[in-house]
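Q: What structure does this chain adopt?
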Amino acid sequence: MAKAVRFYETGGPEVLRYEDVEVGEPGPGQVRLRHVAVGLNYADTYFRNGTYPIPLANGMGVEASGVVQSVGEGVSHVAVGDRVTYTGFINTLGAYSTERLIPAAALIKLPETLSFETAAAMTMRGLTASYLMRRLYDFKPGDSILLHAAAGGVGLIVSQWAKLLGLTVIGTVSTDAKAQVARAHGCDHTINYSHEDVASRVRELTDGVGVNVVFDSVGRNTFMGSLDSLKRRGLMVCVGTASGPIEPFDPQILAIKGSLFMTRPALADYIAEPAEKARLASELFDHVSSGRIRIEINQHYALQDAVQAHRDLESRKTTGSSIFVI
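A:
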């Protein structure tokens, strides 16, 4: 019998249930997939707590890697026995499971040079880093970025990618230990926001100019400080709301603070087209396979420990990537 983590109401980690599930055979356009490793992402908590509304009851998780067991009618780009990985949004919910049915279109073939564990730890984070670094801003060597949550899974990949592009990286962290992790992965400077004012420190580090781009995954608590860290006509990239959603604001503030630009992108819109997803994945896989970008898996959980995994994630106990091992 297959196992899965499901939830029947929104709330804290305690709403997650580990239970038996029937999988069945794949229908047209579907694949039956046996998971080997499953990704744990902060976005999972948004589904669980209702920030991202979905019909209930439902499965949990949007990222995993594994082996194709059987394919439905019309499936041609993957075959039985293929090693694959995936990430997505509502169309891939249900990743916290030992086996599942999934739309074949979501699957990305996994090179032999990458393990299932690495894939589960980086497909969402890595593709996010890929579009952040390659699709939103025309970076040039010498440009600078402010990266919130620099010791997190996305942060560590973005830092390393930024250094490949010749950028100066300023990362924010909550502890001295996380500062060490961030610096080891490419951050030129770290700011401990527990006792330092981020915007003031950024101005000091940039001779009063500010940074070209801010990647802000924190949201409400860091929003104004992020705007104050940008140079004239800089870009504010809102990529998450770990501290809560940003309060409504008058767009005039963007003009007052230097004719700033602002965007709230979503990974789903950058991997919706198969050709673009393939290009982003190819560049990511190449960087990781060559060792230019290291994927740090610092937490491993059993699937039945999903409640504890979510507690650890939300209490900021984790660094790098976290995975469930099946």
